[in-house]
Specification:
By secondary structure, the protein is an alpha/beta fold. It is built from 13 helices and 25 strands. The strands form six sheets. The chain has a seven-stranded mixed sheet with strand order 10-23-24-25-21-22-11, with helices on one face. A hairpin with a 7-residue loop joins strand 13 and strand 14. It binds one RNA strand through helix 5, strand 6, helix 7, helix 12 and strand 19.
Amino acid sequence: MAENEKSTNFVQQAIDEDLKNGKYTEGIHTRFPPEPNGYLHIGHAKSICLNFGLALNNNGLCNLRFDDTNPTKEDVEYVDSIQEDIHWLGFDWQDRKFYASDYFEKLYDYAVELIKRGLAYVDDSTAEEIRQNRGTLTEAGKESPFRNRSVEENLDLFTRMKAGEFADGARVLRAKIDMASPNINMRDPVIYRIAHAHHHRTGDAWCIYPMYDFAHPLSDAIEGITHSVCTLEFEDHRPFYDWLLESLGFDVNTRPRQIEFARLDLTNTVTSKRKLLQLVKEGHVSGWDDPRMSTLSGLRRRGFTPAAIRNFCNEIGVAKANSLVDISMLEHCVREDLNETADRVMAVLNPLKVVLTNVPEGKVEYLVAENHPKHGGNRYIPFSREIYIERDDFMECAPKKFFRLKPDCEVRLKHAYIIKCEEVIKDAEGNVIELHCTIDPTSKSGGATANRKIKGTIHWVEANSAIKAEVRLYDYLLKTDENGNLPDDFIAALNPDSLVVVKNALIEPSVKFAAPGTRYQFLRLGYFVIDYDTTFDNLVFNRIVTLKDTWAKIKCKD
RNA sequence: AGGGGUAUCGCCAAGUUGGUAAGGCACCAGAUUCUGAAUCUGGCAUUCGUUGGUUCGAGUCCAGCUACCCCUGCCA
């Protein structure tokens, strides 16, 4: 499905239905509501694409709203990174960046209103007592002894909570609903707690903070959100969402409606903020933007494109069934995008020297090489008596299906000549250290007599002009079982080979002045991006993803 | 055990007045190829968790059963 094609998931269908029924005549309005307590990851990308996409498809708007109601866990570092990541992904909230903390005053007023309506009360119970009285999954809870205080007393106490008269945990404000409800979220949920904590935006102005369940529906309502899209685990909270807005008198035809979808889970990686944080804290990765991380900053550094991620989010769909998407789907989307956009270049990761004995010493020839098989553009690459090829492209005793270089056989050098392996040079231990080959001078690429059919074509690099580079070969961060599931101890499942650093790779000279962030296809190897660690004398590449490799499959079968 | 959800190919996922199973990924086969890439062609669910029922006809309706996920934070 094309990226801008209207997707018809069940959320869109709910919107269509609402519109048909005459609801939300002002238009559709969604929001993306991250808590600034960590970096955004691929799972958030699904939510971002969904929420902003829904707005786009319905001619509506999507807000960015930081859900910053818990000052002890949140930080400006995260609000900055979140904005950067959303923009990078290609979405814009225009002038609609909000914070739940923008509404603290209003939220407080709504709480007072709830008290006045007899629907909320201050509870002096300890956290432990509240827990004990909540009941269990099968038994009803017990009502708090403070449940039936007068409105006046509640108002007085809540005012004093706000004024800072009480210590953390001394009292809470609770909604007064039904301690016997089979839905635990309706057993008088706590809606305000005391926390003498410094908030990254409101500073020390408040010492009481609203709970998510209270702040979220009201923030939605305040912003005129029509469809509040969240993940499945909030399904049980919807009755409270509706109860709150109903209790406060919001019109059912215009008030926001919560719709839940299944979060993204991906094989071979972690998509949980907690685990991502653990990887960073324990030093298993270099940071939030380590190219092996599923964070958007990690994927960005790895070289993934925003378009590829958007396409991926589009293709996996949106539904309510918990699912585990195979990482190959993501890789497919990256390859699909990069195949179109990345220029081709030659690089040798594991060099084997080749001397072309019938090429005169000192002679350098410049050959024409296309930058992209479809989109044109050429460059010149040097060619001379000494070149390097990939070690894997030579086999002394090769199986019949191996159509690269082997003794007394021919192979084509991409953009250059057909060569024949005449002599294999070995060291004392018998390791191949050099090859002597001859070129067929009539076979020059593009020439009139170049059309001789040769089964194999390999990449190479000219010895004197090649640039040395560091290439970081990234692989899956995690090993998973056949079903893609992580074991309980995910640290034990870390792939020890998730990063292999090649220090002395050789790249053709054309990439010399390319800027960090530039993506290439290294012919026959994969897609690579210039890392930001690159300095004047140390070029660093990250492998984004390999090319599909049919030969690897054939090898495995043998 | 109470409540809330979900079950369609190895993985995602369409299927909406019941009419005889889209598409993508992966995989397989072939064509093509100066990237064993890309591209192209063909293959890939007589069957929709399961058992019954209604019906000329059911993935779609009804009843029962089973499996899995979420919920007992003053986290979001």
